[in-house]
Amino acid sequence: MKNEVKSKNKIVSWDSHLDKKYGERGTASRTDFEVKAHTFMVAEVLKEERAKAHLTQAQLAEKTGTKKSYISRIENGHADIQLSTLYRLIEQGFNRKLEFSIS
After folding, report:
1. Per-residue pLDDT tens digits for 77-89
2. Which end of the chain is more exposed for a tag (fewer CB within 10 A), N or C?
């Protein structure tokens, strides 16, 4: 079953699991978790795209006018990234188009 977790022979939805572990949506602890999860996902996408482009962190930094240390911090989830920087990394660094949606 999609997005379900089995807990002591009881299947619960993923949202129910997150509610129990981090609190309901809108609570500070759940928001903190979701921000960290999204930061991790962005970091993984950047690492994956950089590997596909056969670029080192230093090469990506040079192409996009940033520093290697900043690319490293982003990829390790230790830096907040501005939207303008994310666009620059994706579009200038990887020659790709960044699109996102709000749901």
Report:
1. 898 889 999 999 9
2. C
The closest alpha carbon to 93, from 54, 64, 67, 62, belongs to: 64
| 14 close to 59: Cβ distance less than 8 angstroms | no
AA identity, residue 7:
S
From 52, 50, 13, 18, select the one nearest 36 (Cα to Cα).
18
Answering whether pTM is above 0.85, one says no
What would the CATH number be for the domain defined by 38-93?
1.10.260.40
Q: Is the dihedral of CA 52, 47, 70, 36 positive or negative?
A: positive
What digits encode the pLDDT tens for the residues 6-32? 556 788 898 888 988 988 899 999 999
Phi, psi of 10 (to 5 degrees): -120, 125
